[in-house]
TrEMBL record, chain A:
Annotated TM spans: 304-326, 347-371, 391-413, 434-457, 469-495, 516-538, 881-909, 935-963, 983-1007
UniProt protein name: ABC3 transporter permease C-terminal domain-containing protein
GO cellular component, one term: plasma membrane protein complex
The ABC3 transporter permease C-terminal domain, residue ranges: 311-416, 896-1000
Species annotation: uncultured Nocardioides sp
Membrane recorded as keyword: yes
Subcellular location: Cell membrane
Keyword Thylakoid: no
Length: 1022, 275
């Protein structure tokens, strides 16, 4: 026997009561409650924490990748000279004073300066270039000769200027000013310099500009001349003279709010300066960074809640379920409280006293968990800024706590408000399983309306993103309500046919009050898991698509100039088989490629052309006519038609030219002479050295000064080069028919060895007859979405439009915009010269080849201007909020499965006694152990399997419907790179995981229950 | 606190079950004087527990009135009923654990039950004193799970009387107890009745228990079927003049039997007519 009760404790202690209950007697339930409260809080609080971490990473990435121009903040005052007089630029120190203290605090050390553009007044080609003063500049250059300027008019020049313009130290220079008519300002070179410390100079270009360009349009430029401030003061104003203060945004310690606030403050400052003085300008590109942060943050505010909110709602639902079980278990305590004179409020208080001390620590655990998750996320995301917690975190924790408390109060009130006679009654009240409750009906109506709007496309934008969750919820509610009566009917039917286990299993499924809830939860959980993982994988696929499309190939080298033959020669040396490199020409929206090597090197993320399509864009399989020599002769016989006329109808002369292309791609015209009069014959001769090393015949051109109309036939034959007869096509099939608005040239059969051309031309442009080697229309592969109702033309490599015909479609033309064309390089270049509208690129399938290719190109005088790498672009897309927010799917997917597991666990823990007793009754009535175990194992499986199948289907359908609205990329793509189709391998993997883990858990719970089905259970329940 | 009297008039209670209604009580008139100790007897389903629940304010009657002391329980507000149960009426359900906070001790249960009385400013005894009164003084701080069934029942008694109620209603307080435990529980209830003047009404099936009670009321078919006083069985004439036959007379006077009342020397003689 124990001791007498403590005399000190005369009053009831709620704390002792709560502690005993939570820690002494219901540890399992306490753990479940704590875990669910923690989960709810973690889900709710993690969203703003992760959002913040993403913003930090984004700011870090953007600032780290930003160039100096984007980080430079410059307040500039410009001197003006007009009819009213001269207005000098403001003092840089005054400009610095205009920068508010808080803004200046986030910028680096300002550099004050003055700049102007000066041109010398003497010399054959007077050089132009900047003259600059920067406060303290002498400490940031190496003075190579002479001394740093210390008086007005003294300048430092580069060694290149010494070489190009003879500006040795001691040389006087006179430069023009902004005011015409003045004699200029005298400067004196006091030394030479080389820049150092590019950061201090804020990446300003000082040298490398010094040059002299001769030819018909000669020009010269000098490097920056460094001087002292006094040079700008007191004298005449230089051309484009400005004063400024400039500083770079600090990137090391600037947080998200700091950057955004700085952007806003700079906008305000810009407006203020503009209002105060029209000559003042704030120059900064930081707005691009802040705009990007804001835009991507908006994206995150759509995607993160999309993934996390359903998880939190599901967790709240599970909390409701767990609390329902917990309060149900405490009916006895509620009854005692009511018997002892506590009212409903008092009984509710007793429940809350027991539950809240467990749940609120769970909230704290979840809050800490969210912080830890945020810290992990911050560590995984790029950037070095320490982890921050914003106000959103506190609000989210508070929201979670409120949700937990309200849910607990609701669950407690639900039991405590029951009439006392119901509370004290033994056993549970029967539930009306067939009836649809008012809450269910309301939920079904609301959710059904939402789903209808979602499926019919009425929901758009962010609202559409809740569609999958609504669809899953509707499916879960419906399947729960339909499956239970159906299971009961099926169970009875099976029992009548002697199928004991199957019949009882289905009857049990239909009879259990928790079946409907379980099915709804499992449906929603599996749907969310499918959706989250599908979104993750589809997002990854689309970022790869976008990266591949933007890059075109693993590495792309853009070369200067249009030496296609040189490029080809270089590539042949590095990659003789032509399997890993390919030359490409781009002319505006036309991508010209080599169909042999290009498919092996280029990315086609949304499907490559077929082999037939590649063959279809090939040019005509005709050999070109190669001419090598300098003297050309062609026999021409003009038909009996009309004499050529000029634009006024007077007789005119028409000429005949040979049009050829040289190996370099340049197109040349070789004039042969005037066509003989009608009915006459002549041999026309021309001389040109364009084909001294060989060229290709592109066309016969009929010309006339100021335009000429020809309606006649012309027989041409006997093409000779340097007196040698040339084999060339003379049959009609070997020449194209030219048919345009002003020209019709039809090749027909002439005398043997002669080509007859029926001409009907007018207008001022030469009329050309081209051999079949030159494609009349360019065979083209077009992007799927391109439509050309007015006729298809593509941009030729000479910059002019060329008629084209579509021979196939491809979703994306690598690296090209939505309206583009993919053509054969050979086809588009036949007979055409190259213009500045086009440029040449080299596409490589291996970054390791870059060095060799660059060297090989350099040997041939081809310079690489720019290198584009797939990996760089890929990383750029990876370091975006769109990618990071979808990465949550990797957390949400497993989390919802865990929640579903928790539900199964809770239901097993709260219901095992009743089930064990039922099984024990069966055992007493003769059922074998194997039978009862089978019944226990299968008790929940039909409902679980049906719910999972429904959930996977709902998740897949929901994903398919919602995915087009999910922002996968930081900005909407210009080309259709996004492929929102279902990622079936991922969906099947998630489905497999759900179908293995959850039924296994249900079966294990059944096995454990079956073990408890002993005879004494029957007695216990009596 | 003095005991509270009970008065019921025309008490009717009908349970509404699925598809049909069941009359549990069909006009019960019962008077229990303050400080009395009364046993309610009767077969299962006769309405004993229903009567207890109506008196304790757990159920509201379909018709009729219930008074506990001066309070008309049948018309009291829920708040008044809560106050009544918290201070003046102790209600003990059948099965000890249904009256106790499960994860606790007898002493804590006593303390818990005293809270309403303390809040209303009433003087309540020390929990140790209450436990001593029922003979559970040494087991007060032991977890309920460690107690014997008899001790559990005593703990339930202790919790029920903890605020010194004027009326103690006990439903089958001695069922499923061995004789020793039964006697300890009965002794505790008798102690409460005699020491504090508490009116005690208990439902029992146990004839041994009924035998020691000064007064028993038998409920039969939802009516007062008879009374026992000091070992003597009486039939009770109802307010509307019905006279339920005692059990042994029922066997001899089956339903439909015509009887005639004869007054002989100041006594009534009941004589069945031959058919």
């Amino acid at each position: 026997m124990g001791d007498r009760p403590s005399r000190r404790a005369t009053s009831w202690s709620p704390v002792r009561f709560a502690r005993r209950s939570a820690l002494g007697h219901r540890r399992g339930q306490t753990s479940a409650l704590l875990a669910v409260a923690a989960l709810i809080t973690a889900c709710t609080a993690f969203a703003p924490v992760y959002d913040r971490a993403m913003q930090q990473a984004l700011v870090d990435t953007l600032l780290a990748n930003a160039d100096t121009d984007e980080l430079l903040v410059r307040v500039q005052s410009e001197a003006t000279v007009d009819a009213r007089g001269t207005n000098e630029a403001q003092d840089p120190r005054e400009l610095q004073a205009l920068v508010p203290r808080d803004v200046a605090g986030q910028l680096g050390t300002p550099v004050l300066g003055r700049t102007a553009s000066v041109t010398t007044v003497h010399g054959d080609i007077p050089p132009t270039g900047p003259i600059v003063w920067r406060e303290g500049a002498c400490e940031h250059v190496r003075v190579l000769r002479g001394t740093c300027p210390d008086a007005a008019g003294q300048i430092l020049v580069s060694e290149a200027d010494v070489d190009n313009f003879g500006l040795a130290p001691g040389t006087p220079v006179r430069v023009r000013t902004a005011v015409s008519g003045e004699t200029g300002v005298r400067l004196e070179v006091v030394g030479t310099y080389a820049p150092r410390d590019r950061t201090w100079w804020q990446e300003e270009t000082l040298v490398g500009m010094s040059s002299v360009v001769g030819g018909t349009d000669p020009s010269a430029a000098h490097d920056a001349w460094l001087t002292v401030e006094e040079t700008f003061l007191g004298g005449p104003v230089f051309l484009g003279e400005t004063a400024h203060t400039a500083a770079l945004v600090r990137t090391g310690s600037t947080d998200v709010d700091g950057v955004l606030a700085l952007g806003d403050r700079l906008d305000e400052l810009a407006d203020r300066l503009e209002d105060e003085d029209g000559d003042l300008t704030l120059m900064t590109a930081l707005g691009d960074v802040t705009d990007s942060v804001r835009e991507q943050t908006r994206q995150a505010h759509r995607t993160v809640p999309l993934l996390v909110a359903p998880l939190a709602v599901l967790a709240v639902f599970v909390l409701w379920l767990v609390l329902g079980a917990a309060t149900e278990q405490r009916r006895g305590e509620v009854a005692v409280a009511r018997l002892r004179g506590r009212g409903r409020a008092g009984a509710t208080g007793v429940l809350l006293l027991e539950l809240l001390p467990v749940l609120l620590p769970g909230v704290a655990v979840g809050a800490v968990g969210a912080l830890l998750g945020g810290a992990v996320a911050r560590a995984l995301l790029p950037g070095a800024e320490p982890f921050e917690v914003g106000v959103g975190y506190a609000v989210a924790v508070l929201l979670a706590a409120v949700a937990v408390v309200l849910t607990t109060v609701a669950a407690a009130v639900r039991v405590a408000r029951e009439p006392l006679d119901v509370l004290v009654r033994r056993g549970r009240t029967s539930s009306r399983r067939w009836a649809v409750g008012a809450l269910d009906a309301f939920l079904l109506a609301v959710v059904g309306t939402g789903v209808l709007a979602f499926v019919t496309g009425s929901l758009s934008g962010p609202a559409a993103l809740v569609g999958p969750a609504l669809l899953a919820l509707l499916a879960g509610l419906l399947i729960g309500h339909l499956a239970t009566p159906a299971a009961s009917v099926s169970g009875r039917w099976l029992l009548r046919r002697g199928r004991l286990v199957a019949g009882l299993t289905l009857l049990e499924t239909g009879r259990r009050p928790e079946t409907r809830t379980l099915m709804a939860v499992l449906t929603v959980a599996s749907a969310l898991a499918v959706f989250a993982v599908d979104a993750l994988v589809v997002g990854e696929r689309n970022r790869v698509n976008a990266s591949q499309h933007e890059a075109g190939a693993p590495v792309v080298l853009r070369v200067a100039g249009l030496d296609l033959d040189g490029v080809r020669s270089a590539l042949e040396e590095v990659d003789p088989a032509g399997r890993r490199t390919t030359p490409v020409m781009i002319s505006r929206d036309t991508l010209a490629v080599d169909p042999e090597s290009f498919p092996r090197v280029a990315f086609f993320p949304r499907g490559a052309p077929t082999a037939d399509e590649w063959r279809a864009i090939a040019p005509p399989d005709v050999e070109p006519v190669t001419l090598t020599g300098t003297r050309f002769a062609l026999t021409v016989r003009t038909g009996d038609g009309a004499v050529p006329e000029d634009a006024l109808g007077a007789d005119a002369q028409a000429g005949l030219d040979l049009v050829v292309t040289a190996a370099s791609g340049t197109r040349r015209t070789i004039t042969l002479g005037t066509l003989p009069r009608p009915g006459e014959r002549a041999t026309l001769v021309g001389e040109d050295d364009a084909c001294a090393e060989g060229c290709r015949l592109v066309a016969l051109a009929f010309t006339g000064y100021g335009g000429v109309s020809i309606t006649n036939s012309v027989d041409v034959s006997g093409l000779e080069v340097d007196g040698r007869r040339v084999e060339w096509p003379t049959s009609a099939e070997e020449w194209n028919t030219t048919d345009s608005e002003a020209t019709f040239i039809a090749p027909t059969s002439g005398a043997p060895g002669a080509l007859r051309l029926e001409l009907s031309t007018h207008g001022i442009y030469p009329a050309e007859a081209t051999p079949a080697w030159v494609p009349l229309t360019v065979p083209t592969l077009l992007p799927t979405g391109r439509r050309d109702p007015l006729g298809l033309v593509v941009s030729g490599v000479n910059g002019s439009d060329r008629p084209a015909r579509s021979v196939g479609r491809v979703v994306l033309v690598p690296s090209m915009p939505r309206r583009s064309a993919l053509v054969d390089l050979d086809a588009i270049t036949r007979g055409s010269d190259f213009s500045a509208a086009a440029h040449v690129e080299v596409w490589l399938d291996d970054p390791a080849l870059v060095e060799g290719v660059v060297a090989s190109l350099r040997e041939r005088g081809v310079v690489v201007e720019d290198v584009r790498r797939y990996e760089t672009i890929r990383q750029g897309y990876a370091d975006t909020v769109a990618a990071w927010s979808l990465a949550l799917g990797a957390v949400v997917g497993p989390a919802v499965v865990l929640i579903a597991l928790l539900v199964l666990l809770v239901l097993a823990v709260t219901g095992w006694r009743d089930r064990a007793r039922d099984l024990a009754v069966l055992r007493l009535n003769g059922a074998g152990r194997r039978t009862t175990r089978g019944l226990a194992v299968w008790a929940q499986l039909p409902g679980v399997l049906l719910a999972l199948a429904t959930g996977v289907a709902a998740g897949t359908v929901g994903a398919a419907l919602a995915m087009p609205d999910v922002p996968f990329l930081p900005t909407p793509p210009e080309a259709p790179v996004v492929d929102p189709s279902t990622a079936w391998p991922a969906v099947l993997a998630v489905a497999a995981a759900c179908f293995v883990v959850l039924p296994a858990a249900a079966a294990l719970a059944g096995v454990a229950t079956a073990r408890q089905a002993r005879a004494d259970r029957v007695k216990d329940g009596a | 606190m003095r005991g509270l009297a009970i008065r019921t008039r025309g008490l009717v209670h009908i349970y509404h079950a699925e598809g049909h209604d069941v009359a549990a009580l069909s006009g019960v008139d019962l008077d229990v004087a303050a400080g009395e100790m009364v046993g309610l007897l009767g077969p299962s389903g006769s309405g004993k527990s229903t009567l207890m629940s109506l008196v304790g304010g757990v159920l509201r009657p379909s018709a009729g009135k219930v008074f506990v002391g001066e309070t008309e329980v049948s018309a009291a507000t829920p708040r008044a009923l809560d106050r009544l149960r918290g201070t003046e009426v102790g209600l003990m359900l059948q099965g000890a654990v249904r009256n106790l906070l499960p994860n606790s001790t007898p002493a804590d249960n006593v303390r818990f039950a005293q809270v309403p009385a303390r809040r209303s400013g009433r003087a309540v005894p020390d929990p140790g004193e209450v436990l001593d009164a029922v003979g559970l003084g040494r087991d007060g701080d032991r977890p309920l799970g460690d107690l014997t069934p008899g001790a559990l029942q005593l703990a339930a008694v202790a919790a029920t009387i903890s605020s010194r109620p004027g009326l103690l209603l006990c439903d089958e307080p001695t069922s499923q107890l061995d004789h020793a435990a039964r006697d300890r529980v009965l002794a505790a209830l008798t102690h409460v009745n005699r020491t504090y003047g508490t009116t005690v009404v208990l439902v029992t099936h146990d004839p041994d228990v009924a035998r020691v009670l000064p007064r028993t009321v038998t409920i039969r078919d939802g009516r007062i079927g008879g009374e026992g006083r000091s070992g003597e069985e009486y039939a009770v004439v109802t307010a509307d003049g019905f006279l339920p036959l005692p059990g042994h007379a029922r066997d001899r006077l089956p339903p439909g039997t015509l009887v005639r009342f004869h007054e002989v020397d100041g006594h009534f003689e009941v004589r069945a007519e031959e058919r």
